[in-house]
C-alpha cells in the first residue's frame, strides 16, 4: 500500500536537476549586467549634456572653469577665444571673449592710419607691424611662436588695452614672409580662428608716389634729421609734401601690374579664411565701412578717430615732377582712371 502511494506521488512530482539553480543564476547575472550597462549609458549621456551644453566653453589651461557663450552661433564658436596669458592673469576678465584678427596689407596703403582708427576703439588692440623685425619672420617656427604670443595676449605694446580687450591683432605686410609661408599661415589662421582684414588701395599710382616719397625721406630725414612715415601735425605734413618724385616711365605700367598681381595672389591664397576686403578710398569716403569693420570684429560700434595728418593733399599733377610723361603713358590704358581719382595719399 505504501509503495503504491509513493508511486502516485512520484507521478505528480519532479525533481529539479542539480545544475539547474546554477544556470538560472548565471542567466540572471548576465541579464542584470546588460541592464546595468544600459542604465549607465543613459546616465552618462545625460551627464554629458549637462556638463557640456553648446553655450558653455572651457577656458584653455584652466580646470573647473567654463565660460558662457550663449547667443553665439555654432559656426561662430571657433572665432571666440578665452586666452590665458603666461605673463599675467586675466582675473575677472578670464571669461571675456576675444576675437583674433590680422590686417594683411602693403606699405603705403593706409594701414598705419587704419590701425590708429582701430586702436581708438576701447575694445580693440592692434599691435602694429610686428614682423618688420626680420628675426621674427626668419622661419615658420619663429613666425608661429610670435603669433602664439600675440593671440595668447602675452605681446606687450603701446596698443595693449586692459585685460578685458575684445579683439586683438596686428598688421602684417605681404612682403614680410607671409606669402612665402602662406600655406602654414592659412592653416594656423583657420585652426586658431583668426579673421583676416585685407586692406588695399584702389589707386595704385598714388600708392607708388607715396612709396617713392617715403623712401626719399628715409634717406633725407627732412624732419629735423628724423624719418617719419606718419605725422601728426600740419607743419610736418607740409614739409614732407614738398618732395616731388620723378617716376620711371618705362617701369610704370609693369610696376602697377605687379602691384595688382600681389593683391590678387594674396586674396586667392587666403580665400579659405574668414576675411573682409577693405580699400583705403572706401574708408576715407564712407563712414559705414568702419561700422562694417566693427561688426566683422563683433565689437560695439563706436566713432573711430585718428590723430594722423594726411601728407599729400594736393592734386596728382602737383605731386609728380614728370607729370606730363606719366599722363601720356597711362592715357588710354587700363590704368587711365588712376589719373583722375581724388583720394589722398597719406
- Bulk shape: elongated
Average pLDDT, all residues:
85
Q: Give the spatial strand order of the biggest sheet.
A: 4-5-3-6-7
DSSP, total strands: 7
* Helix content estimate: 40-55%
- Low-confidence stretches at least 5 residues in length (pLDDT < 50)? 1-19, 44-64
Instruction: Give, in order, the helices and strands.
Output: HHEEEHEHEHEHHHEHHH
Helix/strand-derived category reads alpha/beta
- Spatial extent as radius of gyration: 34 Å
Number of helices: 11
Biggest beta sheet summary: 5 strands, parallel
Distance between the terminal alpha carbons, to the nearest Å? 129 Å
| Strand proportion | 5-15%
Topology of this protein?
Layout: H1 2-11, H2 20-51, E1 56-58, E2 66-68, E3 99-105, H3 111-119, E4 124-126, H4 140-151, E5 167-173, H5 182-192, E6 194-200, H6 204-220, H7 234-240, H8 249-269, E7 275-279, H9 280-285, H10 287-296, H11 323-330
Parallel strand pairs: 3-5, 3-6, 4-5, 6-7
Antiparallel strand pairs: 1-2
Quick recap of the structure?
By secondary structure, this protein is of the alpha/beta class.
Characterization of the model:
- There is one protein chain.
- By secondary structure, the chain is of the alpha/beta class.
- The protein is built from 11 helices and 7 strands.
- It is elongated and about 110 Å long.
Based on the model shown, name its key terms.
7 strands, five-stranded parallel β-sheet, alpha/beta, 346 residues, disordered N terminus, two-stranded antiparallel sheet
Amino acid at each position: 500500500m505504501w509503495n503504491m502511494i509513493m508511486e502516485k506521488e512520484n507521478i505528480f512530482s519532479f525533481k529539479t536537476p542539480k545544475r539547474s539553480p546554477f544556470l538560472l543564476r548565471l542567466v540572471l547575472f548576465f541579464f542584470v549586467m546588460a541592464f546595468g550597462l544600459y542604465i549607465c549609458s543613459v546616465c552618462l549621456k545625460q551627464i554629458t549634456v549637462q556638463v557640456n551644453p553648446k553655450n558653455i566653453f572651457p577656458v584653455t589651461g584652466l580646470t573647473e572653469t567654463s565660460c558662457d557663450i550663449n547667443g553665439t552661433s555654432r559656426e561662430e564658436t571657433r572665432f571666440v577665444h578665452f586666452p590665458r596669458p603666461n605673463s599675467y592673469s586675466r582675473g575677472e576678465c578670464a571669461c571675456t571673449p576675444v576675437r583674433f584678427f590680422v590686417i594683411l596689407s602693403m606699405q603705403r596703403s593706409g594701414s598705419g592710419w587704419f590701425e590708429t582708427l582701430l586702436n581708438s576703439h576701447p575694445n580693440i588692440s592692434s599691435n602694429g607691424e610686428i614682423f618688420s623685425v626680420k628675426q621674427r619672420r626668419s622661419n615658420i617656427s619663429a613666425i608661429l611662436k610670435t603669433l602664439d604670443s600675440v593671440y595668447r595676449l602675452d605681446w606687450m605694446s603701446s596698443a595693449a588695452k586692459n585685460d578685458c580687450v575684445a579683439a586683438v591683432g596686428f598688421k602684417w605686410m605681404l612682403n614680410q614672409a607671409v606669402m612665402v609661408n602662406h600655406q602654414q599661415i592659412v592653416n594656423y589662421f583657420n585652426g586658431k580662428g583668426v579673421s583676416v582684414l585685407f586692406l588695399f588701395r584702389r589707386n595704385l599710382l598714388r600708392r607708388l608716389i607715396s612709396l617713392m616719397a617715403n623712401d626719399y625721406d628715409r634717406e633725407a630725414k627732412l624732419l629735423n634729421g628724423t624719418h617719419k612715415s606718419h605725422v601728426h601735425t600740419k607743419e610736418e605734413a607740409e614739409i614732407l609734401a614738398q618732395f616731388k618724385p620723378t617716376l620711371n616711365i618705362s617701369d610704370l605700367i609693369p610696376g602697377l601690374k605687379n602691384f595688382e598681381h600681389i593683391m590678387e595672389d594674396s586674396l586667392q591664397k587666403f580665400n579659405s579664411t574668414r576675411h573682409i576686403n577693405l580699400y583705403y578710398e572706401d574708408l576715407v569716403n564712407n563712414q559705414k565701412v568702419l561700422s562694417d569693420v566693427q561688426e566683422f570684429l563683433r565689437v560695439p560700434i563706436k566713432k573711430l578717430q585718428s590723430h594722423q595728418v594726411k601728407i599729400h593733399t594736393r592734386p596728382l599733377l602737383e605731386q609728380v615732377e614728370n607729370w606730363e610723361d606719366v599722363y601720356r603713358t597711362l592715357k588710354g590704358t587700363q590704368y587711365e582712371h588712376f589719373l583722375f581719382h581724388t583720394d589722398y595719399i597719406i
